[in-house]
Amino acid sequence: MISPKILVETVGPVTTVVINRPRARNALDNEAAHALAAALKEFDSDPAAQVAVLTGAGGSFCAGADLKELSSGADYFPWAGSDEGPLRAPLSKPVIAAVEGHACAGGLGVALFCDIRIVDDTATFGVFSRRWGVPMSDGTTVRLPRIVGQGRALDMLLTGRAVGADEAIAIGLATRKVARGTTRAEAETLAREIAGFPPIAMSSDRQSAYESFDRDQANAIRREMELSLAARRQEAQSGAARFAKGEGRSGKFPK
Questions:
Q1: What's the rounded Cα separation, in Å, for the pair 107 and 32?
Q2: Which stretches in the chain have pLDDT values below 70?
Q3: How many angstroms separate the Cα of 172 from the Cα of each of 42, 67, 176, 192, 212?
Q4: DSSP code of 160?
Q5: What is the distance between the alpha carbons of residues 187 and 176, in angstroms, rounded to a whole number?
Q6: Distance separating alpha carbons of residues 58 and 21, to the nearest angstrom
Q7: What's the CA gap between 248 and 139, in Å, rounded?
């Protein structure tokens, strides 16, 4: 446990990080934000850890920055724009958000930092900080348009309106919807499935997808080829051999 405000649980290759401030709907004060950064860094550097699940305690995901702390005169550091921020750049490994309740303001930024967002019907996304004059400093203005498109992102950023689970699925903000109260369990099941794949090809494909935004199409495709070389040399031939022996026939794959 890095801090009582950020809990870390590890089962096999899956690390679950829990924001543990339920009385504040898991809003992050500075202590919790630094602890979240430390937990994510520790996960990323652990060779035995392969996939992370990020969630909140008590039926909420994260209500953003702790405005009560901010109102007391404390400054908050940018979660994405500073070197010590928890949301500075994608990790080298997949992260799945298990979202119940509010993922608003900076909490939306936390969800957008993740690769996959699993929700139940209680999930609510929104730039609610629009009402209080608190700007986004968590990567939301950059990541949200890339995920849902510029028009939808501007609608959310300018109006501060709430986006429920079904709309989030429809616009691509959320990835999967599951039964109420099961987001963490479903996310951990998915994390175990992802951890079971050959890791080199998965990691290179993921990295290529992120890097493509910074390149024109020709250079992005060239970079995809460069990133694929290690998997082609180390995994692809043995995987093809398994297929040739019968694995995957009729759409049936090993557990």
A1: 13
A2: 1-2, 235-255
A3: 29, 29, 9, 23, 19
A4: -
A5: 10
A6: 8
A7: 39
Chain-centroid distance, C-alpha 177: 15
pLDDT of the residue at 48: 97
Amino acid code (one letter) for 57: A
115-149 core/surface letters (b: 16 or more CB in 10 A; e: else): bbbbbbebbbbbbbbbeeebebbbbbbebbbebbe
Task: DSSP letter for 62, please.
Answer: B
Place of tokens 């992050």: 28
**Angle CA(39)–CA(40)–CA(46) in degrees, nearest 5?**
90
Q: Which amino acid is at 190?
A: L
pLDDT digits (tens, 9 = 90+) for 163-182: 999 999 999 999 999 999 99
Which pair of tokens denotes residue 69? 């702390």
**pTM tops 0.85, yes or no:** yes
- The CA-to-CA distance between both ends of the chain, in Å, stands at 32
- 127: Cβ contacts below 8 Å, ≥ 6 apart: 104, 105, 108, 136, 140, 156, 157, 160
Contact 167, 156 (CB under 8 A): no
